[in-house]
Here is the input.
Amino acid sequence: MAVQQRMLVRVIITEADIRKVELTTKPDTVDLLIRSLKDVLQLNYNFTLQFKDPNFDNELCNLTELSELPERPTLKIIPLLSLVEVHVPQSTSSEELSDTPSQADTDILSNSSQERLRQWPEEFDMYIPKFSVDVEYRLRQANLLHRRDGTHLIPSKELKHDILERVAETMYALKAYPTNSEFEAVATALVRIHPCLKEQGSASGWSGWKNSLKFKMGNYRTKMRRLGHCDVTVNGGKHGKHSPCGDPPNKRIKKPKRGEINYLPDYPDGQDDSTLEDARQTMVDEMKKKTPNGALIKQKMDLTFALRRSEVVKDKPAITQICERWPALFTEQQVCLEFSRVVGKSLKQEFYEALDHHSPRLMEIFKTKRGLTGQVLADLMQQTK
Here is the structure.
């Protein structure tokens, strides 16, 4: 009877998410390998694979045959975008376009530099990540023992490192600089999902995890800074043992204000200052026309979002300078879209929801202060809806 051959691979999902995966059987084809990785890594999108070829100094090459792989390969996942062709009239003006995302926006946003797409959640339980197969197995067994006889797990140094690293990756994907209360929410969610990790002798049961997460996030930001991520490199150069002449570590830290999720994103892949400046100039020239091409304006404004944020955060230009360099930014449509890029929400929807929320109270005040009749009050209420 033939023994099933296992396959151990190192998979690069993103620069911040690199995993070791062991497949119980070695696939026969590249398609079967992709299908197996989809199942194990729980990826819900299509992708191709590249591998580090030892014949070319471990440079990445497209994977076409499994026979090309070394014994323990390093694979990189390349997501595939499924785009639908959309015909946009060339004469569409910016005033006629809405800030509501449409299929036409999908092609444009595919080159976007927006890294984060959601706000920090109110409850973090559903964001506690899945760990490696080995860590998940050990936590599952420890949770069963905890439910049966109240036993608490004392994690080894290696196990604790794996847990903290994975949670830090998840936190960084939402926010580079979490607040103290957000660290508490994550630590609370961690021991709630995995009660075996609750600390004995601690009033809260999670204070040690909170402190460990703070240190791990600091280390993770250092790691991301070395990789060149803009939202943390902007705070590089603070003084330390290697740079005693810099600013104090906690002085003038540039980080998102309340609600901002894309504070200082990285440039889109394949773009640099020169190419983005060319795109900006194309946008400026288009805005000088009597009827600007709305689709083109949206494309260039979305593409140059990272350049624009870099100027605003690092240079702090005057409004007159912003008006000169980014004239499209002050149109109604782009005000709404820029709000969506930075905050991840629809400006109009947020405004109307707030108006609906406060309208009854406002009408009550008007009635009390101005002596409005019931009919006038009803008319005002109708107009606000």
